[in-house]
Amino acid sequence: MVCCWKGFAVWDAGSGTIDCHYEAEIVLKPEKAAAEDKKLQQMLGRNSFLTKEEIAEYFKKNLCCFLDDEFEEYCTAEDYYPPVVEDFEIDYRVRDWCKKTGFKMLSCEGTGDDNGFEPKYRRRW
Questions:
Q1: Alpha-helical runs (H) found in 77-113
Q2: Where are the domains of the chain?
Q3: pLDDT reported for residue 13
Q4: Chunked in runs of 10, what are the mean pLDDT values of the chain (125 residues)?
Q5: Of 49, 52, 123, 124, whose CB is crowded by the most CB atoms within 10 A?
Q6: Is 1:27 a contact under the CB 8 Å cutoff?
Q7: What is the rounded CA–CA span in Å between residue 95 and residue 77?
Q8: Which residues in 21-48 are b (16+ Cβ under 10 Å) and which e?
Q9: How far is Cα 38 from Cα 111, in angstroms, rounded to an integer?
Q10: pLDDT for the residue numbered 16
Q11: How far is the C-alpha of 60 from the C-alpha of 119, rounded, in Å?
């Protein structure tokens, strides 16, 4: 299963902001434990004829939401020091998600960038 994720967060220092962006392509393989996911079991209880595409989409959305939360927390953790977006360590976070959901990460590649500091208030002389 291939999952493409685009993360976005804003670091706000009060007098200016930095828009943080991250893009990644993640290749995952489901393990037996993935079938034990409670939400998936509920979905199958309502409709036992879910396609593999629908199941894959459920897990992709789950991973993207997890990464969105992690990226937001990473970028806004420090009030006085802007995040180094390139150091997000997405592979570590994807491995953490895999342990919780029963997947194995086959590959994970991503890049991050920011637009630089944008002052909120500009003085006009």
A1: 90-101
A2: 2-10+19-114
A3: 79
A4: 97 87 97 93 91 96 98 94 93 97 97 77 47
A5: 52
A6: yes
A7: 21
A8: bbebebebebeeebeebeebeeeeeeee
A9: 32
A10: 82
A11: 36
C-alpha 73/C-alpha 20 separation (Å) is 12
54 by Cβ neighbours in 10 Å (0-12 / 13-18 / 19+) ranks as exposed
- pLDDT of res. 121: 53
Q: Please give the Cα distance from 78 to 76 (Å, whole number).
A: 6
AA letter at 104: K
CA distance linking residue 42 with residue 48, whole number of Å: 10
Please write down the HEC assignment for all residues of 38-72: HHHHHHHHHCCCCCHHHHHHHHHHHHHHHHHHHHH
Identify whether the C-beta of residue 114 lies closer than 8 Å to the C-beta of residue 19: yes
Q: What is the largest CA-CA distance in the chain?
A: 68
Inter-residue contact 115 to 19 (CB < 8 Å): yes
